[in-house]
Design a protein that fits this description.
The complex is a heterodimer. By secondary structure, chain A is an alpha+beta fold. Chain A has helices spanning 15-47, 50-56, 59-89, 201-216, 223-234, 274-287, 301-312, and strands at 97-104, 107-113, 119-124, 126-130, 135-141, 146-149, 156-159, 165-169, 175-181, 193-199, 264-265, 270-271. In chain A, strand 1 and strand 2 (107-113) form a beta hairpin. The chains are: A alpha+beta, B mainly alpha. Chains A and B meet through strand 12, helix 6 and helix 7 of A and helix 1 of B.
Chain lengths: 315, 97
């Protein structure tokens, strides 16, 4: 199975998810307590002595147990719950790392932003973050409503067309955390996953530096990879996909500049290796029916191998 | 297949995603269509239409197909020799018709 998948719920790995988990447990606990009280009252009403029965009957019990108690308990829970989770979706100032995530049918567009809010690095279906630092995510949608959810790092928030929602996530340990679209968005919604990879801060800074440099310099290719680059161009892949530093500049599909380093293919659903890359390109419709990439049955075995090797090289 | 475990083989198949290209008995998703279906593989005479379907050859083939059959489209897979034997065991176990 894939690293971090399926993501466990109620197993927080950072402060925001801890708030959500605490709130969940308190709500479960209160619900259980209320159920016990109701069952006890019911028991007393059915099988209790006459004195007890007259006590659980009457308007006084309704006023106290049916109106006053719920109003007080629910108000307290509401106020407490909202204040507990308020910092999940408000900008808390300071200097958080900012990223913009756009929900697409059925994958995730990822942009790393600089201080001015300009996107400096493009990726897809994978977020790299440093450990111990809040990350402010600007959540948007390109088509229908999606919902961004990494259960171990934060709460769940909808991505709504024409609107920008803010969600903060943080990981307090290095690791790979699975995420999933949590709002039905048509066809292969269930196969719209992603991963968040949390690195130690030095390792994260190193990764970002390497990526920014990579985008600026062309790479040396082996003969097979060079053939793959030609196939990539001839088969029209560049109409939908971008590879920084090449002529491929399509924006309809996931950015492939770093696709060779991704932990998954197909938006968080397959492991990433030469074989799965070939399977995905050859016929992704058999794997993720309804996704917007056509099957490439026009490619020969050599071409499929070459273009996959070329993409595996994109790091 | 001696010293191999079909159960471990299934885990390896899921970990590296063999089913991205092959439909495999006992693996419900994905059901890849790029390579041949491996249903009934135990009774097949040839691997990839060329190589005798022998346990040792199959174990070598699933790990590094081009080394066994130059020109095949199936790529080398990131698995150990032991894992390759486990995968072969699974294909013989589940690939009975």
């Amino acid at each position: 199975m894939l690293d971090g998948w399926p993501p466990p719920v109620l197993d927080p790995a950072g402060p925001y998810a801890t708030s959500v988990a605490l709130l969940s447990w308190v709500l479960f606990g209160m619900a259980a307590l209320v159920l016990l009280i109701v069952l006890a009252a019911l028991y007393a009403a059915l099988f209790g002595s006459e004195k007890l029965q007259s006590r659980v009957g009457g308007t006084r019990v309704i006023w106290i147990g049916g109106i006053a108690f719920p109003v007080v308990v629910l108000t307290v829970l509401l106020v407490w719950g909202l204040s507990l989770t308020r910092n999940l979706s408000t900008s808390a100032g300071g200097d958080p790392l900012r990223m913009r995530i756009t929900g697409e049918m059925w994958w995730w567009r990822v942009a790393y932003l600089d201080e001015q809010g300009r996107s400096v690095l493009h990726d897809a279906n994978e977020l790299h973050i440093p450990v111990g630092r809040p990350i402010e995510l600007q959540l948007e949608s390109a088509d229908v409503i999606h919902s961004f959810w990494v259960p171990r790092l934060s709460g769940k928030l909808d991505m709504i067309p024409g609107r920008r929602n803010v969600l903060r996530i943080q990981a307090d340990e290095a690791g790979v955390f699975g995420g999933q679209c949590a709002e039905y968005c048509g066809g292969p919604h269930a196969l719209m996953g992603f991963v968040v990879v949390a690195h130690e801060p030095e390792r994260f800074a190193q990764l970002m530096r390497a990526r920014l440099q990579r985008a600026a310099s062309p790479m040396q290719l082996t003969p097979v990879e060079a053939t793959g680059a030609r196939v990539f161009q001839a088969a029209g892949c560049a109409a939908c996909h971008r590879i920084a530093g090449t002529q491929a500049n399509g924006l309809a599909g996931p950015d492939l500049t770093y696709v060779g380093t991704r932990r998954t293919l197909g938006a968080g659903i397959l492991p990433n290796n030469l074989g799965t890359m070939m399977g995905w390109i050859g016929n992704s419709q058999a794997i993720k029916p309804g996704n917007r990439m056509p099957p490439y049955t026009v490619l020969s075995g050599e071409e499929l191998t070459a273009v996959s090797a070329y993409l595996q090289r994109q790091k | 297949m001696p010293l191999a475990s079909a159960e471990r083989g299934k885990q390896v198949i899921e970990r590296v995603g063999c089913a991205s290209c092959h439909t495999i008995a006992g693996i419900h998703w994905p059901e890849g269509r790029v390579g041949p279906s491996l249903h009934g593989f135990a009774e097949r005479a040839l691997i990839a239409g060329h190589v005798p379907n022998q346990p040792e050859l199959l174990a070598r083939y699933v790990r590094n197909a081009p080394a066994v059959l130059p020109g095949t489209t199936m790529p080398p897979m990131p698995i150990t020799e032991q894992e390759a034997r486990d995968v072969a065991a699974y294909l013989y176990e589940m690939g009975k018709n």
